[in-house]
Amino acid sequence: MMLTSFGNSLAGGPEIPAVRLFDIVPSAISIQNRDMRITAVNETFRRLFGDRVGELCYDVYKGRSDVCVGCPLIKTFQDGEIHVGEETVRTVSGETILVAVQTAPIFDDDGRIVGGMEVVTDISKTTEMRQELVMLGQAMAGMAHYIKNVLTGLEGGVFVVEEGMEAGDEDLVQQGWTMVRRNIDRVMKLSRDQLYCARERPMERAPVPVKELVCEAVKLYEEKAASDGVELLISQDPQLETGWLDSEGFYNLLTNLISNAVDACRFETSRERHWVQVSTLLEPGGQLRLEVADNGRGIPKELCGEVFSEMFTTKGSGGTGLGLLVVYRVVCAHRGQITVLSEEGVGTVFTIILPLDK
Amino acid sequence: MSGRILVVDDEPDVRTYLKTLLSKDGYHVEEAADGEEGLEVARKVKPDLIFLDILMPKRTGIMLYRKLRKDPDLGQVPIVIVTGLTQYRSFFAQDFEEVPPPDAFVEKPPQREELLALAKKLLGATASDG
Q1: Residue of B nearest to A179 (CA)
Q2: Among A254, A256, A264, CA closest to A314
Q3: B11, B13, B62: which to substitute to probe chain A, counting the most A Cβ within 10 Å?
Q4: What is the least distance, in Å, from the CA of A273 to any CA of chain B?
Q5: Using CA atoms, how far apart are residues A53 and A31, in angstroms rounded to an integer?
Q6: Which of A42, A244, B17, B47 lies at 20 to 30 Å from B124 by C-alpha?
């Protein structure tokens, strides 16, 4: 008997024709023959990939001319079992998304596999959330460690100031006071980053004076950099005017990158002169290219790929990894790009491209 | 008090703090900013006691601990781990089975009196050993 409808009107539920149910499922479903040609699709599929009935599955999902490696549907055709997989596919709007793929065989009356059903579910959001949770969890674990170090710096600073006063040693007082100041700055920055990470805050894009904001962020770190013996250099594109950015996010991004760069210099002990260079450039396409470069100690090659993948710090006790998470979030929210180029013992360049249009 | 103490920590503020504190008590203090430098200085000055931060960039704190413990000249020098890690005891139990455990642990921020008492005790021990 063919099942044509689901539900039970007696139980108070709506009676839904099977065909409509097929359309209601919030995953993209396609029926394919053994040549991987799509013979039917549901509404979610049409919305995500277009009405591509009659076309080859791998062409629709990936623009490929041959079958994808490890295709779960091929496995289903081979053993008649359900298979699952994860794939990156391209949607009709040109977006690349991560999907979970499940495949099931379709048998004819003689029990031969004549085709298969493929259920594709967009898991980009879940994956992002999972990633964020991992990052936050690790950041929290690093936090306790970080705070203990800040406390040590504060205690130490106070002690050194007192010792300096007792001994009438002006230099020692000054040294202790710098320690106190630095560690107060660290607590302030930590609470700012934490707030930024914890708050569900919508992007507020508005016209922002980009050059001025960059100057302001650099100015904020001038004193800290000077006390660490680091020169702060700035070079701005005069053509750069107003851009549509989330000013709070952008400012956070700047301060995090600059303070990281200064730290990278502070931890580098072999060079006489240390510098951090902040540059802006208006790209021909109207995007902002921001570079924060330093001649600090650099990131070991094997760790470069991890910088944004999870809570990351090379500062040992000095970092929480929260700063780069903030930077990464801001870049993503602006649909921008971020890359890092680094060589251990030579320095690091963070390059950020942000669209400036509305 | 007399004795030569090496402080190895990547945080300049911690080094300044410990140096000021220990120098005031009469010790001669040497500093190193990472494990590699730590080993260099240790070989040069042959300290009587080492305060070591274990979590430093590039795992050099861990590397230094192993190298010191296995070093024929420096293997007997007492080592105090000064750390912000909370689970430091289990960390050592897991990662350092093959070498002797540290002589003491101090959690950051250190209590001044405790730290000085520890230095006195451990330096006293080496003096009587020698």
Answers
A1: B13
A2: A264
A3: B13
A4: 18
A5: 9
A6: B17
| Euclidean distance between CA atoms B106 and B118, whole angstroms | 9
Distance CA A45, CA A30 (A): 7
CA distances from A203 to A340, A352, B58 (A): 24, 18, 37
* Domains contained in chain B, CATH given: 4-119 (3.40.50.2300)
Q: Is residue A325's pLDDT more than 60?
A: yes
| A38-56 residue pLDDT tens | 999 999 999 999 999 999 9
ipTM above 0.90, yes or no: no
The residues, ordered by sequence, that sit 6+ positions from A80 with a Cβ below 8 Å of its Cβ are A105, A107, A113
- In angstroms, the separation between the Cα of residue B130 and the nearest Cα of chain A is 33
Task: Give A37's DSSP letter.
Answer: B
Confidence band for A197, pLDDT divided at 50, 70 and 90 = low
Query: Which residues of chain B lie closer than 8 angstroms to A160, CB-CB?
Result: 16-17, 20
In this complex, the residue of A172, A182, A267 whose CB is nearest that of residue B13 is A182
Structure tokens at A107: 């048998």
Instruction: List chain B residues with CB under 8 Å of A146.
Output: 84
Nearest-CA neighbor of B81 among B97, B70, B65?
B65
Tell me how crowded residue A216 is: count the other CB atoms within 10 A of its CB.
13
